[in-house]
Each structure stands twice: as structure tokens, then as C-alpha cells.
Design goal:
139 residues, mainly alpha, flat, Olfactory receptor, transmembrane helix, receptor, transmembrane
């Protein structure tokens, strides 16, 4: 068993999703800084405006209770997503400071048993993310 552990790997898939949603951007010196800011503004404004508007229109156009229940189902998923992104925005700074903390904690694991427990946790986090992603896309 390898004596090197990297707990940051547990968040690898999360960071990819968060990067696509504009959570963490390029440095100010990068040529991608301004396009990224514009992208982040568009994404931030588009989803909270687009989905409630669609919900309102679709609920007004619903002909029966079955159609309205389908609209409610989609609206609940949207509200959940918006709450998740709001929570992510609130704890953004703490998440950006997480990598150095994890490096220090990983350095404290000395025995193979401790490293095995950490590796099991990393593998579990990756599997959990992939299961939720599959469930999200299958719905």
C-alpha cells in the first residue's frame, strides 16, 4: 500500500462541477478572467430568472392536475438546486481554503491503517458523487 494519501481527490468531481458553474475562476492576470466573470454573471442570473418564469408559464398553461403536478415536480428540483448553489456561495471562502488544511491532515496519517481509512473515505466520496450524478441524469 502506498504511504502517500491525497484527500483532495475526494472532491475532484465536485470541483469540476463547481468550476463549470463559475464557482472558482482564473486569476486576474489571465486572459480568461473577464470572459469568466461574464460567464459567471450570466449563469448566476439566468437560472434564478429562467426557471421561475418557466414554472409560472407552465402552471398557467396546465390543462389538468396531472400537468400541474409535473410542473411542481420540476419546480421542486429547481428550488433544491438554487438552495444548493446559495449554500455553496455562502461557504465559498471556506471551501477555497480547504486544500491546505487537507494537506496538513494527510501528512498526519502515518500508519497503513490510517491511510487505508482515509483512502476508503476518498473512494466512498467518489462513489457517492457518481451515484447521485447518475440518479440526477436518470430522472
Amino acid at each position: 500500500m502506498s504511504l502517500i494519501i491525497n484527500s483532495w481527490d475526494a472532491f475532484k468531481y465536485h470541483w469540476r462541477v463547481w468550476d463549470l458553474s463559475g464557482f472558482r475562476g482564473p486569476r486576474r492576470q489571465s486572459i480568461w478572467y473577464i470572459p469568466h466573470k461574464l460567464y459567471m454573471i450570466v449563469i448566476t442570473l439566468l437560472f434564478p430568472i429562467y426557471y421561475p418564469t418557466c414554472f409560472t408559464v407552465e402552471s398557467l398553461l396546465a390543462d389538468n392536475l396531472n400537468d400541474f403536478c409535473e410542473v411542481i415536480y420540476i419546480a421542486m428540483a429547481d428550488v433544491t438546486l438554487n438552495i444548493k448553489f446559495l449554500t455553496l456561495f455562502i461557504v465559498r471562502q471556506q471551501l477555497l481554503e480547504l486544500r491546505p488544511i487537507l494537506k496538513r491532515l494527510d501528512a498526519r496519517a502515518k500508519t497503513e491503517e490510517e491511510i487505508g481509512v482515509l483512502q476508503d473515505g476518498i473512494d466512498s466520496a467518489k462513489k457517492c458523487f457518481l451515484i447521485i450524478l447518475r440518479l440526477f441524469y436518470s430522472a
